[in-house]
Write a structure and sequence with these properties.
Strand order of the largest sheet: 14-13-12-15-16
Order of helices and strands: EHEEEEEHEHHEHEEHEEEEHEEHH
Number of helices: 9
Strand content: 25-35%
Largest sheet: 5 strands, antiparallel
CATH class of the largest domain: Alpha Beta
Radius of gyration: 20 Å
């Protein structure tokens, strides 16, 4: 197969591993800088051009679209879909998962366990919003934040009110969530490919920190997940419409709670921690499912 990898940086660990895994299986792997691709949106023959050449003959595309380029990246991916190229994750599913509020609403509608979450626009509603999620301590998240940035733990009612007033005063869209104290600053990253959790790791925040992201200095270790956690992760990925996803779960007193569904999960932490060839499993999934024009949405939506 001829497989495109949409990535801003071919030297990134995840991009390198996907290229290596594809080449080891005899595929032609082409890394395309997402922001350098440009499109001819014609009804009779949609095209993508890159560095002065039309991109042709691709069987599949692996999107590694960073959060900061979601809009343009999804437009490029949608164009691949319109050309009949099979996407590992579809543009609609990526857009859905990147909108944190929309993602939680979709998960909630399907009855998947979530932390109690509030969303408001007016500073006048702050006191009731805080009570709605069970009062302080609580977690405040900027909707556009990634890798733990824009996430604040407010330990008292006064601190929560001050932070919320500051964010809303800056016209930031924010969510407020209950703080799951029993999770102890740890979460579980379940790596879903197709309908299976193929690897899982526990991420533990460093002392004095509550964010467990590895980019924030958290540590990772092997963990055995329960059947309920496994089912929750697979269902969450399916609700988003993602073939490959990193589903972050908190262990709470009332079962597993989904914190986030990531459409471009990093491979370095999960491969290093579990010793599994995750990149190879992803390419295997493409080999089994990549059929021309088989995109469920065909670029719609």
């Amino acid at each position: 197969m001829k497989i495109a990898v949409l990535s801003r940086n071919p030297r990134l660990y995840s991009t390198r591993r996907l290229v290596e895994a594809g080449q080891q299986r005899g595929h032609e792997m082409v890394v395309i800088d997402t922001l350098r691709a440009y499109m001819n949106i014609a009804s009779h023959k949609p095209q993508i051009h890159y560095r002065g050449q039309a991109l042709e003959g691709f069987d599949a595309v692996i999107p590694r679209i960073g959060a900061s380029v979601t809009f343009y990246g999804c437009a490029v991916l949608r164009q691949f879909e319109m050309m009949g190229v099979f996407p590992l994750n579809e543009s609609v599913a990526i857009s859905r998962s990147r909108d944190k509020l929309r993602a939680l609403q979709l998960l909630s509608r399907k009855g998947i366990g979530l932390p109690v979450t509030g969303f408001a626009h007016s500073p006048d509603d702050i006191p009731d919003l805080i009570q709605m999620v069970g009062g302080a301590p609580l977690v405040i998240k900027v909707l556009e934040g990634t890798q733990g940035m824009g996430v604040v733990l407010a330990e008292t009612q006064k601190a929560a009110e001050s932070v919320l007033e500051a964010f809303l005063g800056l016209k930031q869209d924010i969510m407020v969530q209950e703080y799951i104290r029993e999770a102890g600053g740890a979460d579980i990253r379940c790596f879903v490919v197709g309908d299976k959790v193929i690897a899982a790791m526990k991420r533990q925040a460093k002392p004095g920190e509550f964010r467990s992201n590895l980019h924030r200095g958290g540590s990772a270790s092997l963990i055995k997940i329960t059947p309920e956690e496994r089912m929750t992760a697979v269902r969450a990925a399916r609700v988003m419409g993602l073939n490959v996803a990193g589903v972050d779960i908190l262990r709470s007193n009332h079962g597993p709670l989904v914190m986030e569904v990531n459409s471009s999960p990093g491979l370095q932490g999960i491969e290093t921690t579990t010793g599994k060839d995750v990149a190879g499993i992803i390419v295997d999934h493409l080999e089994k499912h990549a059929t021309h024009g088989q995109t469920r949405t065909k670029g719609r939506g």
